[in-house]
Design goal:
Layout lengths: L2 E12 L38 H13 L3 E2 L2 E2 L2 E4 L9 E4 L6 E10 L3 E14 L3 E5 L4 E5 L6 E7 L6 H17 L12 E11 L9 E6 L2 H20 L7 E6 L4 E7 L9 E2 L6 E2 L2 H8 L6 H12 L3 H7 L3 H11 L5 H19 L10 H12 L5 H14 L3 H7 L8 H14 L1 H8 L6 H11 L6 H11 L1
Parallel strand pairs: 12-13
Antiparallel strand pairs: 1-10, 1-11, 2-6, 3-16, 4-5, 4-15, 6-7, 7-10, 8-9, 11-12, 13-14
Helix pairs in contact: 1-4, 2-3, 5-6, 7-9, 9-10, 12-14, 12-15, 14-15
Bound molecules: adenosine-5'-diphosphate, magnesium ion and zinc ion.
Length: about 475
């Protein structure tokens, strides 16, 4: 029997407010344990939460950027469970009435093309604290700095069908939250976390199968790997006539496997009820409009603009707009350049290649947009040729020197003196009579042999645009 995977993703994104969602404690990451706490976020008796308005504005902004409908009235509920990282014994979370619903975003994968993935809802909630298990001393410690940090949870419709589509959805959502500047997107620090729900159903069947929920997916690559693994695991089970168990599973990136963590909890386990300390959240039109005005150009719009303004292909434009930092970098680089397409190619191959091998992102690039632009303008002006530009680029990465200085020090200026090149061509022809005879007898492939000889003589610095016609003429 053929099975079809059904995947839905839940993303928790930390909002970039300075203070927590229900108190005025700082949200600063990396402070000493429990430095960012007060009676409210440590759940002392008698404390009262006060909603952070900026957090609501950020949630609205994220919702507008994902085409959601904003609910004019939403509410906060108590989600009750007991765990040492949750001092109140409940998490304040929007459950029955979320702030936004019915959104969508567009993705594209090679195998399945362009598709629209529905967003069921976006709701606001507070984060829990963090447990640190000190294995050496057999004690556990709790850090409540993260307790009460504002989150939005973005829940997708079960519209995703492959691991690659899940990756594309997450990358797009991540890009949107960074473009809109509501989340710093740092996956290592947990500012953007994903749970994946996966089930299989016989192809052609409408009804969904039993799902497993995967947690602990802390990179895009891991999400894709974990989902691919889970699809295979469930396929084997179903093919053997066994049942998939509804449960929460953890991804072990070292073993490349998922394993069972606990049975899946049901909503009634949490005994949700409206938080009596918080009034309903009313969002009026003028609030929505004022947030709407702050919406920047979003990834899809930027991609289209890069295609029309710079003549880039859809693929190139999508690579260059995949993150706001890269898109900004590209725009700074091309601002004063004529050949936009060449700049795009150089960024995609040399710059991204270098970042990739070093495992860093564009923000940490040793080559600034300014220097990169200067390098490409030297190439455009024919001061250096493409070979030399590669050498200059590699040197810039190593030494962080400006391109002009490297060109001077290494003597990489292109030889474009016509007389000099003409006599060199004559010499090469005189030195290789056999090849000349062969060429004239029809072995025209030898042209590149002569070019190679000339490049060798000039240490790769001859301007091929001048040499080629000279050589043709003399041959
Ligand atoms: P929770 O996991 O908190 O119980 P939901 O029931 O709202 O929350 O579902 C969460 C996610 O699981 C959503 O993204 C939804 O699309 C997805 N989902 C629900 N049912 C299935 C299923 N049978 N197979 C795959 N994904 C599913
Ligand atoms: Mg869930
Ligand atoms: Zn506090």
């Amino acid at each position: 029997m053929q099975f079809e995977p059904v995947i839905g993703l839940e993303v928790h994104a930390q909002l970039k407010t300075k203070t927590k969602i229900f108190c005025t404690c700082s949200t600063q990451f990396g402070n000493p344990p429990n430095a960012n706490t007060c009676p409210v976020c440590t759940g002392m008796p008698g404390m009262l939460p006060v909603l952070n308005k900026q957090a609501v504005s950020f949630a609205i902004k994220a919702a507008l950027a994902t085409q959601c409908r904003i609910n004019r009235e939403s509410r906060f509920d108590r989600k009750n469970y007991f765990y040492p990282d949750l001092p109140k014994g409940y998490q304040i979370s929007q459950y029955a009435a979320p702030i936004a619903e019915h959104g969508h975003l567009d993705i594209e994968t090679e195998a399945r093309g362009a598709r629209t993935i529905g967003i069921t809802r976006i709701h606001m909630e507070e984060d829990a604290g963090k447990l640190i298990h000190d294995a050496a001393r057999s004690v556990s410690k709790v850090d409540l700095n993260r307790t009460g940090v504002p989150l939005i949870e973005i829940v997708s419709e079960p519209d995703i069908r492959t691991a690659k589509e899940a990756g594309a959805y997450l990358r797009k959502l991540h890009a949107i939250l960074k473009y809109t500047d509501v989340c710093d997107g740092n996956m290592e620090q947990g500012s953007f976390r994903c749970d994946a729900n996966i089930s299989l159903r016989p192809r052609g069947q409408e009804e969904f199968g039993i799902r497993a929920e995967l947690k602990n997916l802390n990179s895009f690559k891991n999400v894709e790997k974990a989902i691919a693994y889970e699809i295979q695991r469930q396929t084997y089970l179903l093919e053997e006539g066994k049942a998939v168990v509804q449960e929460t599973r953890l991804w072990d990136p070292d073993k490349g496997k998922t394993f069972s963590m606990r049975g899946k909890e049901e909503a009634h386990d949490y005994r949700y009820f409206p938080d009596p300390d918080l009034v309903p959240l009313i969002v009026d039109d003028s609030w929505i409009e004022s947030v709407q005005e702050t919406l920047p150009e979003l990834p899809d719009q930027k991609q289209k603009r890069f295609m029309t303004d710079f003549g880039l292909s859809a693929y190139d434009a999508s690579v260059l707009t995949a993150s706001i930092e890269l898109a900004d970098y590209f725009e700074q680089v091309v601002a004063d350049l004529k050949n936009k397409k060449q700049a795009a190619n150089w960024i995609m191959t040399h710059l991204l290649g270098m970042l990739n091998t070093r495992g860093i992102d564009i923000g940490q690039s040793p080559v600034s947009a300014r220097s990169f632009s200067r390098l490409l303008s030297l190439l455009e002006a024919d001061t250096i040729n493409a070979n030399a530009a590669k050498i200059v680029f590699e040197t810039m990465v190593e030494t962080r020197q400006p391109p002009d200085i490297i060109v001077k020090e290494k003597g990489l200026e292109q030889v474009s003196d016509r007389n000099e090149l003409e006599s060199l061509v004559t010499r090469i022809i005189d030195d290789n009579p056999d090849e000349v005879t062969a060429y004239r007898g029809g072995k025209t492939k030898l042209f590149s042999f002569f070019m190679g000889q000339i490049m060798k003589q000039t240490k790769g610095k001859a301007d091929p645009k001048i040499v080629a016609p000279l050589l043709k003429k003399q041959l």
